[in-house]
What does this fold into?
Amino acid sequence: MSRCRNRSFGGVLLFLFFFFFFLWDVGFSADPFVFYEFTVSYITASPLGIKQQVIGINGQFPGPLLHATTNWNVVVNVKNHLDEPLLLTWDGIQQRRNSWQDGVSGTNCPIPAGWNWTYSFQVKDQIGSFFYFPSLYFQKASGGYGGIIINNREVIPVPFASPDGDLTIFISDWYIKSHKQLREDLENGISLGSPDGILFNGLGPFRYNDSLVPAGIPFETIHVDPGKLSNQLQVYYGLKPTNTGSFLCVLLNSLNINVLVFLETEGSYTVQQNYSNMDIHVGQSYSFLVAMDQNASTDYYMVASSRFANTTATGVAILHYSNSQGPVSGPLPDPPNDQFDSHFSMNQARSIRTNVSAGAARPNPQGSFKYGDITVTDVYVLLNRPPELINGIWRTTLNGISYVAPPTPLKLAQQFDVPGVFKLDFPNRFMNRPPKLDTSVINGTYRGFMEIIFQNNDTTVQTYHMDGYAFFVVGMDYGIWSDNSRGTYNKWDGVARCSTQVFPGAWTAILVSLDNVGMWNLRTGNLDSWYLGQELYVSVVNPEVTTKTELPLPDNTIYCGLLSYLQKGQQQRVSFSAAGSFLPKSGRNFLFGLVVMSSSVLFG
It folds into this structure.
Protein backbone atom coordinates (compact mmCIF):
# COMPACT_ATOMS: atom_id res chain seq x y z
CA MET A 1 0.00 0.00 0.00
CA SER A 2 1.32 3.45 -0.75
CA ARG A 3 2.38 6.08 1.75
CA CYS A 4 1.90 9.75 1.19
CA ARG A 5 2.94 13.07 2.64
CA ASN A 6 0.53 15.00 4.85
CA ARG A 7 -1.84 16.88 2.63
CA SER A 8 -4.08 19.90 3.05
CA PHE A 9 -7.85 19.59 3.18
CA GLY A 10 -7.94 20.98 -0.36
CA GLY A 11 -5.58 18.22 -1.47
CA VAL A 12 -7.92 15.60 0.02
CA LEU A 13 -10.88 17.13 -1.84
CA LEU A 14 -8.87 17.06 -5.09
CA PHE A 15 -7.93 13.44 -4.46
CA LEU A 16 -11.56 12.42 -3.84
CA PHE A 17 -12.73 14.33 -6.90
CA PHE A 18 -10.40 12.38 -9.14
CA PHE A 19 -11.31 9.16 -7.37
CA PHE A 20 -14.97 9.66 -8.30
CA PHE A 21 -13.91 10.68 -11.82
CA PHE A 22 -12.06 7.42 -12.37
CA LEU A 23 -14.75 5.34 -10.73
CA TRP A 24 -17.35 6.80 -13.10
CA ASP A 25 -15.10 6.98 -16.15
CA VAL A 26 -13.90 3.39 -16.37
CA GLY A 27 -16.96 1.73 -14.90
CA PHE A 28 -15.07 -0.30 -12.31
CA SER A 29 -16.95 -2.13 -9.58
CA ALA A 30 -17.06 -1.30 -5.89
CA ASP A 31 -13.69 -2.95 -5.27
CA PRO A 32 -11.17 -0.75 -3.41
CA PHE A 33 -8.84 1.69 -5.15
CA VAL A 34 -5.17 2.26 -4.50
CA PHE A 35 -3.40 5.38 -5.79
CA TYR A 36 0.25 5.87 -6.66
CA GLU A 37 2.22 8.73 -8.09
CA PHE A 38 5.38 7.96 -10.07
CA THR A 39 7.87 10.63 -11.07
CA VAL A 40 10.19 9.09 -13.66
CA SER A 41 13.50 10.90 -13.94
CA TYR A 42 17.22 10.45 -14.35
CA ILE A 43 19.16 10.04 -11.13
CA THR A 44 22.85 9.56 -10.51
CA ALA A 45 23.83 6.19 -9.09
CA SER A 46 26.86 3.90 -8.99
CA PRO A 47 25.55 0.34 -9.32
CA LEU A 48 28.99 -0.95 -10.33
CA GLY A 49 31.06 1.68 -8.51
CA ILE A 50 31.10 4.15 -11.43
CA LYS A 51 28.74 7.12 -11.44
CA GLN A 52 26.21 6.93 -14.22
CA GLN A 53 22.77 8.15 -15.15
CA VAL A 54 20.02 5.66 -14.36
CA ILE A 55 16.24 5.91 -14.60
CA GLY A 56 14.66 6.20 -11.18
CA ILE A 57 11.09 6.45 -9.96
CA ASN A 58 10.43 8.88 -7.12
CA GLY A 59 14.21 9.11 -6.79
CA GLN A 60 14.53 5.35 -6.25
CA PHE A 61 16.22 2.62 -8.26
CA PRO A 62 14.62 0.13 -8.46
CA GLY A 63 11.27 1.92 -8.22
CA PRO A 64 8.72 1.50 -5.42
CA LEU A 65 6.78 -1.71 -4.93
CA LEU A 66 3.19 -1.51 -6.10
CA HIS A 67 0.93 -3.45 -3.72
CA ALA A 68 -2.67 -4.47 -4.40
CA THR A 69 -5.11 -7.28 -3.68
CA THR A 70 -7.09 -9.36 -6.18
CA ASN A 71 -9.73 -7.26 -7.97
CA TRP A 72 -8.49 -3.94 -6.58
CA ASN A 73 -8.33 -0.96 -8.90
CA VAL A 74 -4.92 0.62 -9.36
CA VAL A 75 -4.41 4.25 -10.37
CA VAL A 76 -0.85 5.34 -11.19
CA ASN A 77 -0.16 8.92 -12.21
CA VAL A 78 3.11 8.93 -14.16
CA LYS A 79 5.11 12.13 -14.58
CA ASN A 80 7.69 11.93 -17.35
CA HIS A 81 10.74 13.94 -16.31
CA LEU A 82 12.99 12.23 -18.86
CA ASP A 83 14.24 13.93 -22.03
CA GLU A 84 12.37 11.51 -24.31
CA PRO A 85 8.89 9.97 -24.53
CA LEU A 86 7.94 7.26 -22.05
CA LEU A 87 5.51 4.39 -21.52
CA LEU A 88 5.37 2.07 -18.52
CA THR A 89 4.06 -1.44 -19.08
CA TRP A 90 2.79 -3.72 -16.32
CA ASP A 91 4.39 -7.05 -17.11
CA GLY A 92 2.00 -9.90 -16.28
CA ILE A 93 -1.00 -7.71 -15.43
CA GLN A 94 -3.69 -9.01 -17.75
CA GLN A 95 -5.58 -5.72 -18.12
CA ARG A 96 -8.89 -7.52 -18.45
CA ARG A 97 -11.14 -5.68 -20.97
CA ASN A 98 -8.62 -2.86 -20.91
CA SER A 99 -5.69 -3.03 -23.33
CA TRP A 100 -5.92 0.80 -23.32
CA GLN A 101 -3.72 0.67 -20.20
CA ASP A 102 -1.12 -1.81 -21.41
CA GLY A 103 1.63 0.74 -21.94
CA VAL A 104 3.23 -0.52 -25.17
CA SER A 105 3.61 1.13 -28.55
CA GLY A 106 0.71 -0.74 -30.14
CA THR A 107 -1.83 0.40 -27.55
CA ASN A 108 -0.72 3.82 -26.29
CA CYS A 109 0.81 7.01 -27.60
CA PRO A 110 3.97 7.79 -25.61
CA ILE A 111 3.85 10.24 -22.72
CA PRO A 112 5.89 13.18 -24.08
CA ALA A 113 8.78 14.56 -22.06
CA GLY A 114 7.42 16.94 -19.43
CA TRP A 115 3.91 15.48 -19.53
CA ASN A 116 2.10 13.16 -17.19
CA TRP A 117 -0.51 10.51 -17.81
CA THR A 118 -2.64 8.47 -15.44
CA TYR A 119 -2.99 4.72 -15.82
CA SER A 120 -6.11 3.18 -14.31
CA PHE A 121 -6.67 -0.57 -14.32
CA GLN A 122 -8.09 -3.43 -12.27
CA VAL A 123 -6.03 -6.46 -11.23
CA LYS A 124 -9.00 -8.66 -12.03
CA ASP A 125 -8.79 -12.30 -10.95
CA GLN A 126 -5.02 -12.21 -10.41
CA ILE A 127 -2.54 -12.99 -7.66
CA GLY A 128 1.23 -13.22 -7.70
CA SER A 129 4.49 -11.37 -8.30
CA PHE A 130 4.98 -9.20 -11.38
CA PHE A 131 6.89 -6.06 -12.36
CA TYR A 132 6.65 -2.85 -14.36
CA PHE A 133 9.23 -1.25 -16.63
CA PRO A 134 9.61 1.34 -19.44
CA SER A 135 8.73 -0.27 -22.77
CA LEU A 136 10.20 2.21 -25.29
CA TYR A 137 13.59 3.27 -26.65
CA PHE A 138 15.64 0.64 -24.79
CA GLN A 139 15.03 2.58 -21.54
CA LYS A 140 14.70 -0.60 -19.48
CA ALA A 141 18.48 -1.06 -19.83
CA SER A 142 18.89 2.06 -17.67
CA GLY A 143 16.37 1.02 -15.00
CA GLY A 144 12.89 2.40 -14.44
CA TYR A 145 11.60 -0.96 -13.20
CA GLY A 146 9.94 -2.02 -9.97
CA GLY A 147 7.79 -4.76 -8.49
CA ILE A 148 4.08 -5.50 -8.36
CA ILE A 149 2.70 -7.74 -5.60
CA ILE A 150 -0.94 -8.85 -5.83
CA ASN A 151 -2.13 -10.50 -2.64
CA ASN A 152 -4.97 -12.97 -2.23
CA ARG A 153 -8.34 -11.97 -0.92
CA GLU A 154 -8.81 -13.24 2.62
CA VAL A 155 -11.75 -15.42 1.55
CA ILE A 156 -9.50 -17.52 -0.71
CA PRO A 157 -7.37 -20.10 1.14
CA VAL A 158 -3.65 -20.11 0.35
CA PRO A 159 -2.05 -23.56 -0.18
CA PHE A 160 0.92 -22.89 2.13
CA ALA A 161 1.72 -21.41 5.51
CA SER A 162 1.99 -17.64 5.66
CA PRO A 163 5.67 -16.63 5.63
CA ASP A 164 7.15 -14.58 8.46
CA GLY A 165 8.34 -12.01 5.94
CA ASP A 166 8.80 -11.34 2.22
CA LEU A 167 12.07 -10.80 0.38
CA THR A 168 11.51 -9.18 -3.02
CA ILE A 169 14.60 -9.37 -5.22
CA PHE A 170 15.25 -7.85 -8.64
CA ILE A 171 18.13 -9.47 -10.50
CA SER A 172 19.40 -7.67 -13.58
CA ASP A 173 22.31 -7.77 -15.97
CA TRP A 174 23.77 -4.28 -16.20
CA TYR A 175 25.81 -2.10 -18.53
CA ILE A 176 27.76 1.02 -17.69
CA LYS A 177 26.82 2.39 -21.11
CA SER A 178 23.55 4.33 -21.16
CA HIS A 179 20.48 2.96 -22.90
CA LYS A 180 20.98 5.59 -25.61
CA GLN A 181 24.50 4.34 -26.33
CA LEU A 182 23.38 0.71 -26.29
CA ARG A 183 20.52 1.26 -28.73
CA GLU A 184 22.83 3.21 -31.04
CA ASP A 185 25.23 0.26 -31.01
CA LEU A 186 22.42 -2.12 -31.95
CA GLU A 187 21.29 0.12 -34.79
CA ASN A 188 24.87 0.05 -36.11
CA GLY A 189 25.08 -3.74 -35.99
CA ILE A 190 27.14 -3.88 -32.79
CA SER A 191 25.98 -6.51 -30.30
CA LEU A 192 25.47 -5.69 -26.65
CA GLY A 193 28.38 -7.89 -25.67
CA SER A 194 28.86 -9.16 -22.15
CA PRO A 195 27.22 -7.15 -19.39
CA ASP A 196 29.46 -5.27 -17.00
CA GLY A 197 27.82 -6.88 -14.01
CA ILE A 198 24.72 -8.40 -12.41
CA LEU A 199 22.75 -6.38 -9.88
CA PHE A 200 20.74 -7.38 -6.83
CA ASN A 201 18.07 -4.73 -6.22
CA GLY A 202 20.03 -2.16 -8.19
CA LEU A 203 23.33 -2.81 -6.40
CA GLY A 204 26.53 -4.48 -7.58
CA PRO A 205 28.37 -7.52 -6.22
CA PHE A 206 29.82 -7.88 -2.75
CA ARG A 207 33.62 -7.92 -2.97
CA TYR A 208 34.04 -11.65 -2.56
CA ASN A 209 37.33 -11.62 -4.49
CA ASP A 210 39.67 -8.64 -4.48
CA SER A 211 41.04 -9.41 -7.93
CA LEU A 212 37.63 -9.84 -9.56
CA VAL A 213 35.52 -7.16 -7.84
CA PRO A 214 36.82 -3.60 -7.54
CA ALA A 215 36.60 -1.77 -4.25
CA GLY A 216 33.88 0.79 -3.63
CA ILE A 217 30.89 -1.03 -5.15
CA PRO A 218 27.73 -0.78 -3.02
CA PHE A 219 26.10 -4.18 -2.46
CA GLU A 220 22.76 -5.49 -1.26
CA THR A 221 22.35 -6.90 2.26
CA ILE A 222 19.23 -8.97 2.88
CA HIS A 223 18.27 -8.99 6.57
CA VAL A 224 16.49 -12.01 8.06
CA ASP A 225 15.69 -13.38 11.49
CA PRO A 226 16.62 -16.97 12.37
CA GLY A 227 14.34 -19.70 13.60
CA LYS A 228 14.72 -21.14 17.07
CA LEU A 229 15.55 -24.78 17.73
CA SER A 230 14.55 -26.86 14.74
CA ASN A 231 12.01 -28.83 16.76
CA GLN A 232 10.28 -25.71 17.98
CA LEU A 233 9.80 -22.55 15.93
CA GLN A 234 10.85 -22.32 12.30
CA VAL A 235 11.08 -18.99 10.51
CA TYR A 236 10.14 -18.95 6.82
CA TYR A 237 10.48 -16.17 4.30
CA GLY A 238 8.73 -15.74 1.01
CA LEU A 239 11.53 -15.24 -1.53
CA LYS A 240 10.27 -13.41 -4.65
CA PRO A 241 13.00 -13.09 -7.32
CA THR A 242 12.38 -11.46 -10.71
CA ASN A 243 14.80 -11.25 -13.62
CA THR A 244 14.42 -7.64 -14.78
CA GLY A 245 17.48 -7.75 -17.02
CA SER A 246 18.09 -7.20 -20.72
CA PHE A 247 18.98 -10.66 -21.98
CA LEU A 248 20.90 -12.77 -19.45
CA CYS A 249 19.48 -15.87 -17.79
CA VAL A 250 20.72 -16.16 -14.21
CA LEU A 251 20.93 -19.02 -11.74
CA LEU A 252 19.97 -18.12 -8.16
CA ASN A 253 21.94 -20.03 -5.57
CA SER A 254 23.00 -19.77 -1.92
CA LEU A 255 24.94 -21.95 0.52
CA ASN A 256 22.49 -20.90 3.19
CA ILE A 257 19.33 -21.97 1.44
CA ASN A 258 19.23 -25.77 1.41
CA VAL A 259 15.72 -26.01 0.03
CA LEU A 260 13.62 -23.66 -2.09
CA VAL A 261 9.98 -24.76 -1.84
CA PHE A 262 8.40 -23.64 -5.11
CA LEU A 263 5.06 -21.88 -4.51
CA GLU A 264 4.05 -19.62 -7.39
CA THR A 265 5.10 -18.22 -10.73
CA GLU A 266 3.47 -15.27 -12.49
CA GLY A 267 0.07 -15.80 -10.91
CA SER A 268 -0.18 -19.61 -10.75
CA TYR A 269 0.29 -21.73 -7.67
CA THR A 270 2.63 -24.58 -8.48
CA VAL A 271 3.19 -28.10 -7.24
CA GLN A 272 5.32 -27.64 -4.13
CA GLN A 273 8.67 -29.17 -4.99
CA ASN A 274 12.11 -28.67 -3.49
CA TYR A 275 14.91 -27.00 -5.44
CA SER A 276 18.43 -26.10 -4.39
CA ASN A 277 18.73 -23.49 -7.15
CA MET A 278 16.66 -22.02 -9.96
CA ASP A 279 17.30 -20.72 -13.47
CA ILE A 280 15.43 -17.43 -13.88
CA HIS A 281 15.08 -16.23 -17.45
CA VAL A 282 14.50 -12.65 -18.56
CA GLY A 283 11.09 -11.37 -17.48
CA GLN A 284 10.27 -14.33 -15.24
CA SER A 285 9.06 -14.05 -11.63
CA TYR A 286 8.88 -16.72 -8.94
CA SER A 287 7.88 -17.17 -5.31
CA PHE A 288 9.56 -19.65 -2.98
CA LEU A 289 9.25 -20.50 0.69
CA VAL A 290 12.65 -20.76 2.37
CA ALA A 291 13.58 -21.72 5.91
CA MET A 292 16.13 -19.56 7.71
CA ASP A 293 17.52 -22.52 9.64
CA GLN A 294 21.30 -22.21 9.33
CA ASN A 295 23.64 -21.38 12.16
CA ALA A 296 24.62 -17.72 12.24
CA SER A 297 28.35 -18.04 12.77
CA THR A 298 28.74 -15.77 9.72
CA ASP A 299 26.71 -14.07 7.02
CA TYR A 300 26.05 -15.97 3.79
CA TYR A 301 26.35 -15.34 0.06
CA MET A 302 23.36 -15.15 -2.25
CA VAL A 303 24.58 -15.54 -5.82
CA ALA A 304 23.14 -14.89 -9.27
CA SER A 305 25.49 -16.43 -11.82
CA SER A 306 25.19 -16.10 -15.58
CA ARG A 307 23.83 -18.92 -17.71
CA PHE A 308 24.23 -19.71 -21.43
CA ALA A 309 26.51 -16.73 -22.06
CA ASN A 310 30.24 -16.12 -22.42
CA THR A 311 30.55 -13.88 -19.41
CA THR A 312 31.92 -14.11 -15.90
CA ALA A 313 29.50 -11.50 -14.59
CA THR A 314 28.19 -12.57 -11.20
CA GLY A 315 25.79 -10.90 -8.81
CA VAL A 316 26.53 -11.35 -5.10
CA ALA A 317 24.35 -10.17 -2.22
CA ILE A 318 24.78 -10.81 1.50
CA LEU A 319 22.21 -12.75 3.52
CA HIS A 320 22.55 -11.42 7.05
CA TYR A 321 20.99 -13.13 10.06
CA SER A 322 20.08 -10.78 12.88
CA ASN A 323 22.27 -12.86 15.22
CA SER A 324 25.17 -13.25 12.80
CA GLN A 325 28.56 -13.49 14.47
CA GLY A 326 30.62 -12.05 11.61
CA PRO A 327 31.03 -11.29 7.91
CA VAL A 328 31.11 -13.91 5.19
CA SER A 329 34.38 -14.93 3.56
CA GLY A 330 35.75 -17.52 1.22
CA PRO A 331 34.74 -18.68 -2.28
CA LEU A 332 31.25 -18.48 -3.73
CA PRO A 333 29.08 -21.61 -3.83
CA ASP A 334 29.74 -23.68 -6.91
CA PRO A 335 27.06 -23.69 -9.59
CA PRO A 336 25.42 -27.13 -9.89
CA ASN A 337 26.58 -27.81 -13.45
CA ASP A 338 28.16 -26.35 -16.56
CA GLN A 339 26.75 -22.89 -17.30
CA PHE A 340 25.92 -24.01 -20.86
CA ASP A 341 24.08 -27.18 -19.77
CA SER A 342 20.67 -26.39 -21.20
CA HIS A 343 19.45 -29.99 -20.67
CA PHE A 344 19.54 -29.42 -16.91
CA SER A 345 17.69 -26.15 -17.34
CA MET A 346 15.06 -27.63 -19.65
CA ASN A 347 14.36 -30.52 -17.29
CA GLN A 348 14.02 -28.03 -14.45
CA ALA A 349 11.54 -25.99 -16.51
CA ARG A 350 9.52 -29.10 -17.37
CA SER A 351 9.25 -29.96 -13.68
CA ILE A 352 7.32 -26.73 -12.92
CA ARG A 353 3.67 -27.73 -12.88
CA THR A 354 0.38 -26.23 -11.75
CA ASN A 355 -1.10 -27.18 -8.39
CA VAL A 356 -4.42 -28.27 -9.87
CA SER A 357 -6.15 -28.72 -6.50
CA ALA A 358 -5.46 -25.20 -5.20
CA GLY A 359 -7.49 -22.09 -5.88
CA ALA A 360 -5.67 -18.89 -6.79
CA ALA A 361 -7.50 -15.64 -7.41
CA ARG A 362 -10.79 -17.56 -7.45
CA PRO A 363 -12.00 -20.27 -5.05
CA ASN A 364 -12.38 -22.92 -7.76
CA PRO A 365 -9.33 -25.17 -8.21
CA GLN A 366 -6.84 -24.17 -10.88
CA GLY A 367 -7.30 -27.60 -12.47
CA SER A 368 -11.00 -27.00 -13.10
CA PHE A 369 -10.07 -25.31 -16.39
CA LYS A 370 -9.36 -28.48 -18.37
CA TYR A 371 -7.30 -26.90 -21.13
CA GLY A 372 -6.27 -30.28 -22.52
CA ASP A 373 -9.87 -31.01 -23.55
CA ILE A 374 -10.40 -27.79 -25.54
CA THR A 375 -10.33 -27.86 -29.34
CA VAL A 376 -7.59 -25.69 -30.84
CA THR A 377 -8.93 -23.12 -33.34
CA ASP A 378 -5.70 -21.46 -34.52
CA VAL A 379 -2.09 -22.68 -34.79
CA TYR A 380 0.94 -20.41 -35.21
CA VAL A 381 4.51 -21.65 -35.49
CA LEU A 382 6.71 -18.61 -34.82
CA LEU A 383 10.27 -19.01 -36.03
CA ASN A 384 13.02 -16.62 -35.04
CA ARG A 385 16.50 -16.18 -36.47
CA PRO A 386 19.65 -14.29 -35.52
CA PRO A 387 19.78 -10.59 -36.53
CA GLU A 388 19.98 -10.08 -40.28
CA LEU A 389 20.22 -7.18 -42.70
CA ILE A 390 16.92 -5.90 -44.09
CA ASN A 391 17.14 -2.91 -46.38
CA GLY A 392 20.66 -2.30 -45.09
CA ILE A 393 19.78 -2.25 -41.38
CA TRP A 394 20.13 -4.95 -38.73
CA ARG A 395 16.79 -6.41 -37.67
CA THR A 396 15.31 -9.46 -35.95
CA THR A 397 12.25 -11.32 -37.19
CA LEU A 398 9.41 -13.72 -36.43
CA ASN A 399 8.37 -15.76 -39.46
CA GLY A 400 10.52 -13.48 -41.58
CA ILE A 401 8.75 -10.27 -40.51
CA SER A 402 10.44 -7.55 -38.49
CA TYR A 403 7.81 -5.47 -36.72
CA VAL A 404 7.70 -1.74 -37.42
CA ALA A 405 5.81 0.38 -34.89
CA PRO A 406 3.65 2.90 -36.79
CA PRO A 407 3.26 6.51 -35.55
CA THR A 408 -0.39 5.74 -34.79
CA PRO A 409 -0.85 2.96 -32.18
CA LEU A 410 -2.64 -0.08 -33.55
CA LYS A 411 -5.38 0.03 -30.94
CA LEU A 412 -6.22 3.66 -31.67
CA ALA A 413 -6.18 3.01 -35.42
CA GLN A 414 -8.58 0.13 -34.87
CA GLN A 415 -10.85 2.25 -32.67
CA PHE A 416 -11.10 5.08 -35.19
CA ASP A 417 -11.04 2.91 -38.34
CA VAL A 418 -7.86 4.54 -39.61
CA PRO A 419 -6.88 2.69 -42.80
CA GLY A 420 -3.40 1.59 -43.74
CA VAL A 421 -1.84 1.48 -40.28
CA PHE A 422 -1.61 -2.32 -39.99
CA LYS A 423 -2.64 -5.51 -41.77
CA LEU A 424 -4.36 -8.57 -40.26
CA ASP A 425 -2.22 -10.96 -42.26
CA PHE A 426 0.54 -12.34 -40.03
CA PRO A 427 1.54 -15.74 -41.47
CA ASN A 428 0.95 -18.79 -39.28
CA ARG A 429 4.26 -20.33 -40.38
CA PHE A 430 7.60 -19.21 -41.76
CA MET A 431 7.34 -18.41 -45.44
CA ASN A 432 10.19 -19.08 -47.83
CA ARG A 433 10.77 -15.48 -48.87
CA PRO A 434 13.23 -12.71 -48.04
CA PRO A 435 12.73 -11.10 -44.62
CA LYS A 436 10.87 -7.80 -44.61
CA LEU A 437 9.82 -4.86 -42.46
CA ASP A 438 6.08 -4.77 -41.85
CA THR A 439 3.26 -4.03 -39.39
CA SER A 440 1.47 -7.35 -39.60
CA VAL A 441 -0.97 -8.45 -36.89
CA ILE A 442 -2.45 -11.84 -35.94
CA ASN A 443 -6.22 -11.85 -36.33
CA GLY A 444 -7.18 -13.77 -33.19
CA THR A 445 -10.58 -15.43 -32.86
CA TYR A 446 -12.53 -14.13 -29.87
CA ARG A 447 -13.08 -17.03 -27.47
CA GLY A 448 -10.88 -19.15 -29.70
CA PHE A 449 -8.14 -21.43 -28.36
CA MET A 450 -4.74 -20.73 -29.90
CA GLU A 451 -1.70 -22.97 -30.05
CA ILE A 452 1.60 -21.13 -30.46
CA ILE A 453 4.93 -22.87 -31.03
CA PHE A 454 8.09 -20.83 -30.59
CA GLN A 455 10.89 -22.28 -32.72
CA ASN A 456 14.26 -20.82 -31.72
CA ASN A 457 16.75 -20.87 -34.59
CA ASP A 458 18.95 -18.30 -32.86
CA THR A 459 22.09 -19.19 -30.91
CA THR A 460 20.88 -17.76 -27.59
CA VAL A 461 18.08 -18.55 -25.15
CA GLN A 462 15.02 -16.41 -25.87
CA THR A 463 12.16 -15.59 -23.54
CA TYR A 464 8.73 -14.83 -24.97
CA HIS A 465 6.00 -12.86 -23.22
CA MET A 466 2.33 -12.27 -24.08
CA ASP A 467 0.37 -9.36 -22.67
CA GLY A 468 -3.28 -9.78 -21.69
CA TYR A 469 -3.12 -13.47 -20.85
CA ALA A 470 -1.68 -16.32 -18.87
CA PHE A 471 -0.90 -19.18 -21.26
CA PHE A 472 -0.30 -22.86 -20.56
CA VAL A 473 3.24 -24.08 -21.21
CA VAL A 474 2.52 -27.58 -22.54
CA GLY A 475 5.78 -28.72 -24.09
CA MET A 476 9.41 -28.01 -24.92
CA ASP A 477 12.11 -30.05 -26.56
CA TYR A 478 15.14 -29.88 -28.84
CA GLY A 479 14.93 -30.11 -32.62
CA ILE A 480 12.26 -28.97 -35.07
CA TRP A 481 8.65 -29.01 -33.91
CA SER A 482 6.24 -31.16 -35.92
CA ASP A 483 2.65 -32.28 -35.59
CA ASN A 484 3.94 -35.43 -33.90
CA SER A 485 5.40 -33.28 -31.12
CA ARG A 486 1.89 -32.86 -29.72
CA GLY A 487 2.19 -36.40 -28.40
CA THR A 488 4.62 -35.09 -25.78
CA TYR A 489 2.37 -32.26 -24.55
CA ASN A 490 1.37 -31.96 -20.90
CA LYS A 491 -2.42 -31.65 -21.17
CA TRP A 492 -3.24 -31.69 -17.47
CA ASP A 493 -1.03 -29.58 -15.20
CA GLY A 494 1.16 -27.43 -17.45
CA VAL A 495 1.95 -24.20 -15.65
CA ALA A 496 -0.03 -21.09 -16.61
CA ARG A 497 2.23 -18.04 -16.87
CA CYS A 498 2.97 -15.07 -19.12
CA SER A 499 6.69 -15.62 -19.98
CA THR A 500 8.42 -18.76 -21.17
CA GLN A 501 11.94 -19.64 -22.24
CA VAL A 502 12.91 -21.21 -25.56
CA PHE A 503 16.34 -22.77 -25.77
CA PRO A 504 18.53 -22.45 -28.87
CA GLY A 505 17.82 -25.16 -31.40
CA ALA A 506 14.63 -26.05 -29.53
CA TRP A 507 10.91 -25.28 -29.37
CA THR A 508 8.35 -24.41 -26.71
CA ALA A 509 4.58 -24.84 -27.17
CA ILE A 510 1.87 -22.87 -25.39
CA LEU A 511 -1.94 -22.87 -25.41
CA VAL A 512 -3.92 -19.71 -24.75
CA SER A 513 -7.65 -19.04 -24.45
CA LEU A 514 -8.44 -15.80 -26.31
CA ASP A 515 -11.12 -14.56 -23.92
CA ASN A 516 -9.69 -11.05 -23.33
CA VAL A 517 -10.71 -8.51 -25.98
CA GLY A 518 -8.00 -6.05 -27.00
CA MET A 519 -4.78 -5.54 -28.92
CA TRP A 520 -2.11 -7.63 -27.21
CA ASN A 521 1.66 -7.55 -27.55
CA LEU A 522 3.58 -10.80 -28.09
CA ARG A 523 7.32 -10.17 -27.83
CA THR A 524 10.68 -11.55 -26.98
CA GLY A 525 11.82 -10.58 -23.52
CA ASN A 526 15.42 -10.23 -24.72
CA LEU A 527 15.74 -6.47 -24.98
CA ASP A 528 18.12 -6.42 -27.95
CA SER A 529 15.95 -8.74 -30.06
CA TRP A 530 12.80 -6.85 -29.06
CA TYR A 531 14.31 -3.47 -30.00
CA LEU A 532 15.31 -4.80 -33.42
CA GLY A 533 11.80 -5.97 -34.30
CA GLN A 534 11.05 -9.37 -32.77
CA GLU A 535 7.48 -8.72 -31.68
CA LEU A 536 3.95 -8.75 -33.03
CA TYR A 537 0.39 -8.03 -31.89
CA VAL A 538 -2.65 -10.27 -31.56
CA SER A 539 -5.98 -8.54 -32.22
CA VAL A 540 -8.92 -10.05 -30.34
CA VAL A 541 -12.25 -8.43 -31.26
CA ASN A 542 -15.72 -9.25 -30.01
CA PRO A 543 -18.11 -8.75 -32.97
CA GLU A 544 -20.68 -7.54 -30.45
CA VAL A 545 -19.48 -4.19 -29.13
CA THR A 546 -20.20 -4.15 -25.39
CA THR A 547 -18.53 -2.82 -22.26
CA LYS A 548 -18.95 -6.30 -20.79
CA THR A 549 -15.95 -7.40 -22.86
CA GLU A 550 -14.07 -4.14 -23.48
CA LEU A 551 -14.00 -0.86 -21.62
CA PRO A 552 -14.47 2.35 -23.61
CA LEU A 553 -11.68 4.61 -24.81
CA PRO A 554 -10.36 6.53 -21.77
CA ASP A 555 -11.14 10.26 -21.61
CA ASN A 556 -7.48 11.05 -20.92
CA THR A 557 -6.18 9.24 -24.03
CA ILE A 558 -3.10 10.80 -25.61
CA TYR A 559 -3.34 11.05 -29.41
CA CYS A 560 -0.47 10.92 -31.89
CA GLY A 561 0.32 10.00 -35.48
CA LEU A 562 -2.67 10.29 -37.78
CA LEU A 563 -4.89 11.14 -34.79
CA SER A 564 -2.76 14.01 -33.45
CA TYR A 565 -5.51 16.48 -34.35
CA LEU A 566 -7.62 15.04 -31.50
CA GLN A 567 -5.07 15.88 -28.81
CA LYS A 568 -6.23 18.40 -26.23
CA GLY A 569 -4.05 20.74 -24.23
CA GLN A 570 -2.19 19.83 -21.09
CA GLN A 571 -4.84 21.38 -18.88
CA GLN A 572 -6.92 18.29 -19.61
CA ARG A 573 -4.48 16.02 -17.83
CA VAL A 574 -5.27 14.38 -14.50
CA SER A 575 -2.80 15.26 -11.76
CA PHE A 576 -2.43 13.97 -8.23
CA SER A 577 0.61 16.10 -7.51
CA ALA A 578 -1.02 17.53 -4.37
CA ALA A 579 -1.49 14.05 -2.97
CA GLY A 580 2.00 12.54 -3.04
CA SER A 581 2.72 8.91 -3.61
CA PHE A 582 2.34 6.84 -0.49
CA LEU A 583 -0.03 6.69 2.48
CA PRO A 584 1.31 6.42 6.03
CA LYS A 585 -0.37 3.92 8.30
CA SER A 586 -2.00 6.82 10.13
CA GLY A 587 -3.86 7.85 6.97
CA ARG A 588 -4.54 4.46 5.43
CA ASN A 589 -7.79 3.56 7.19
CA PHE A 590 -9.16 7.07 6.77
CA LEU A 591 -8.57 7.18 3.05
CA PHE A 592 -9.67 3.68 2.26
CA GLY A 593 -12.67 4.01 4.51
CA LEU A 594 -13.74 6.92 2.35
CA VAL A 595 -13.00 4.98 -0.83
CA VAL A 596 -14.99 1.90 0.12
CA MET A 597 -17.86 3.85 1.65
CA SER A 598 -18.08 6.20 -1.31
CA SER A 599 -18.10 3.40 -3.84
CA SER A 600 -20.91 1.65 -1.99
CA VAL A 601 -22.91 4.89 -2.07
CA LEU A 602 -22.40 5.22 -5.81
CA PHE A 603 -23.20 1.64 -6.70
CA GLY A 604 -25.38 0.51 -3.81
